[in-house]
Amino acid sequence: MPERIAALGPFFAFETHAPGPVEGPWRSMGELLDEPSVLRDRVAAVRGYLAAGGGQPAEAVELRVAASVTQLGLASRLLSPGFAVAALTGAVLSYGLRDARWQPTPGSLFPLSLPDRTAAPVADPAERAARLGRELFDGPIRELAAATGGFALSPRILWGNVASAVNGAASAIARTEPELAGEAREFADRLLEQPPLRGAGGRTDDGSGFRRRSCCLIYRAAPDRAGALCGDCVLTSPPRTRARSAPS
Q1: How many CB atoms lie within 10 A of CB 8?
Q2: Which string of DSSP letters, residue by residue, matches 33-85?
Q3: Could you give the 3-state DSSP secondary structure of residue 246?
Q4: In a domain, 179, yes or no
Q5: What is the C-alpha to C-alpha distance for residues 216 and 230, in angstroms, rounded to an integer?
Q6: Distance CA 48, CA 204 (A)
Q7: ∠ CA(105), CA(33), CA(85), 5° rounding?
Q8: 22 within a domain of the structure (yes/no)
Q9: How far is CA 222 from CA 33, 52, 187, in A?
Q10: Number of domains in the chain
Q11: pLDDT band at 237, cuts 50/70/90?
């Protein structure tokens, strides 16, 4: 299974590991919860990267902006494999943040390893989305949001970032495997209807794209806080976004 999913691109790639001690170069992702300095250091590194992009000192970028971008990248990497496995194979992976292992290289494409467990098959797409929502959003994604919330980020921003990550996973599959685009987007729509993502974003009225209902704040990292907006940002002026029920 990992080989098939990895073929979709580096955001989806993962290795598996058996229970036991964590051995280098791997580290437990639980350190993001258990060792506050690990998350602080990663946020500081992102802050420095964002500042350098605008030719500014790190202090010019608000810490909460860097924290939001950090959480978005970590959430995208954490949920993308589970999303792809569920959307394309019908199975649901189960893992907490402390179960996952990583090699914390810069950026969002860090090596990721998930526990080697039998994934539960769920034939009904609606139930599969609900099951994955419970596994991810009540598991590693909520744990990560709770840790990052200490940087003065509201739940609206944090879960909006997760909604963007779900849409990003579907869009990445569509680019890599166009014949799977409809299947991936339909599953993303179902997942976006699971709490706590319900209302965080959805398809635009004209069906042309996805729009979230919050902002990740990255535009504020540019000089004078006047950076470009992301394509799915609530601050743009696209066709109105509608709340959508998951297809039956």
Answers
A1: 21
A2: HH-HHHHHHHHHHHHHHHHHHTT--GGGS-HHHHHHHHHHHHHHHHHHHHHHH
A3: coil
A4: yes
A5: 8
A6: 34
A7: 65
A8: yes
A9: 29, 10, 34
A10: 1
A11: low
